[in-house]
Every structure is written in C-alpha cells, then in structure tokens.
Amino acid sequence: MIYLPKDSIADTLALLKAELLQHSATVTLVAVSKQQPAAKIMQALDAGQRVFAENRVQEAKEKWPALRSVFPDSELHLIGPLQTNKIREALAIFDVIETVDRPKLAVALAAMMQKEGKFPACYIQVNTGNEPQKSGIPREEADQFIHYCKEELQLPVSGLMCIPPVGEDPAVHFQLLKTLAERHALASLSMGMSDDYPVALRMGATHIRLGRAIFGERA
Ligand SMILES: *Cc1c(COP(=O)(O)O)cnc(C)c1O
Fold this sequence. Notes:
It is a single chain. By secondary structure, the protein is an alpha/beta fold. It is built from 9 helices and 9 strands. Strands 1, 2, 3, 4, 5, 6, 7, 8 and 9 form a 9-stranded parallel sheet that branches. β2, α3 and β3 (75-78) form a beta-alpha-beta unit. The radius of gyration is 17 Å and the shape is globular. The structure holds pyridoxal-5'-phosphate. Pyridoxal-5'-phosphate binds at residues 32, 34, 55, 79, 163, 193-195, 209-213.
C-alpha cells in the first residue's frame, strides 16, 4: 500500500486516535519518525502526539535533542538494531529500547545501564518468522532468552516486539508474540505497522508503530 503525503498530520492523527479508541482505551500509538524531517515531526508534536520511534541512534541524535528541548515530555523508542558500541549513546536519548535481540547485546546493555545509572524499559525483539536476514531472537530461543534477560541480567524487560515476515498472515506471528508475553508476564506488546495494525489491534497489541500511515511515504 502507498501512503500519500499528508496535508494535515494533525487530522491524520485525530482519525487514527479515534480508530484506536474503538479497540482499546489503552493502546499507545508510536509515531515512527525515521527518515522524516523535523518539520513534520514538529507538526505531530504540535498536534499532541508524544510517543515516537527512530530506528537509528545516529539519526535520533541529530533530530531529537532540539525537538525535545521544545517538548520535554516526549518519549522516544528505539526500534532498529542496536550495535554494542552505540549503547551509551542510545541510553542518553531513548526511553524504551524495543530491540534487545541477542545475548551479547543484553550483557553489554545491562553493564552500561549500571554504569550510566539509566534504565530505559526494554522489549525483547522476537524473530517470529525465523528469517535469516531479520533481527530478533529466534522463536525457539525466545523463552530462554527472555528468562536470561529478566532473571540473570536483571534487565528492566517489560515487553516484546516483532515484525512479521512480508507476505505471511501477520495474525499467526502476533499470536505467537502474545502467547510468549503472557507466559513471561510481560505487559507490553509492540506489534502492528501501517499495513497490518488493524490485525495487531484485534490481537491485543499495546503499542502499534506507525510511520507511513501518519507521515506519508518516507523520503
Ligand atoms: C519503519 C518501521 C515501522 C513503521 O513502518 P510503517 O510501515 O511506515 O508504518 C515500524 N516498526 C519498525 C521496526 C520499523 O522499522
């Protein structure tokens, strides 16, 4: 699906909010602002949107300090892969890290959190489709990895995130994530993007991550 440029981001957000309310009073709309210019993000902020996501530490560092000086109550999620050498920078800027996906990262993250005294909420990214090119802990290792992060490393894990394979029924993947979250008593379920969020809402998403549906196609 192609998303047209939005004349009014405020109107688009109002429509989406109304749609979300029909499903649940508590689902959080995460506005994915990657590759979107600061002017468009500012329109969303002016319209009252406060939760955003970026997929690159570097890009977030370039765009967000200025925006946050105007809107200090905004919240920023990391939804792209995190390299271990970027953890310190990520801790300085992100409130939620949705992409904890491998033991090496989890260990380094736990250590740096202690060192920096910063403890953003962590979600475990699960590669529900076991796709070789995709980030996320493989499905079969997810139980053990979640346990390891929570109990051994004492990471502040509060949710799970997934990106279903293109061309497959997303419902299967959302159900898998939901079952996993229930088994580990994790409250947050970050699932659903512009093309599949209605399915995710039906399946109990607590956070949907919308980029193009809010801002139009990326540059
Ligand atoms: C880009 C991205 C999104 C948003 O995708 P849209 O199709 O623009 O809604 C959501 N989640 C992740 C992890 C992304 O990288």
